Amino acid sequence: MGALDYLSNFCSVNSSSTRHRRRAMQTVEIRVKMDCDGCERRVKSAVDSIRGVRSVEVNRKQSRVVVNGYVDPHKVLKKVKSTGKKAEFWPYIPQHLVYYPHSSQAYDKKAPAGYVRNVPQAFPTVNSSAPEERMMSIFSDDNVNACSVM
């Protein structure tokens, strides 16, 4: 967008403005199975061609593509799928953020080291805290009913 385009937005005769709102800066993480350098280059060049992309990081070992920029996540996913590769949004989160990383749905053998699947079963429910925290609060000095338990 040049300087003349920028100034013409302020000097327009029309009462209805045709200015476009810029998308928010986003980080989109996608899981793509890549086997060789050619696959990696093809995916990176396809994502680089999207308007608004600022940076692309490809990690073939983790099968992960990280895109930063003013982009729509679904358009990025569609563009990656157009290369012929199977792609999905990154389904993993770091293991240290989860209460129950070894629950049956969260633990995934295919996940990179230090990551588990992002599933609701890995987190405690909203109305109750983690069982370890409840057991520790029974004998706490802050608990007013601790004397009755002992």
From TrEMBL:
Highest taxon in the source lineage = Eukaryota
- Family membership: Belongs to the HIPP family.
The keyword Lipoprotein is annotated on this UniProt entry: yes
Q: What InterPro entries would the database entry show?
A: HMA_dom, HMA_dom_sf
Q: Name one GO biological process term.
A: response to stress
Q: What is this protein called?
A: HMA domain-containing protein
Named from the GO MF annotations, one term is: metal ion binding
TM stretches of this protein: none
Q: Which UniProt keywords apply?
A: Cadmium, Lipoprotein, Membrane, Metal-binding, Methylation, Prenylation
Q: What Pfam families does the annotation carry?
A: HMA
Domain HMA, which positions? 25-88
Q: Where in the cell is it found?
A: Membrane
GO CC, sorted alphabetically, is:
membrane
**Species, as recorded:** Trapa natans
State the PROSITE patterns in the record.
Answer: HMA_2
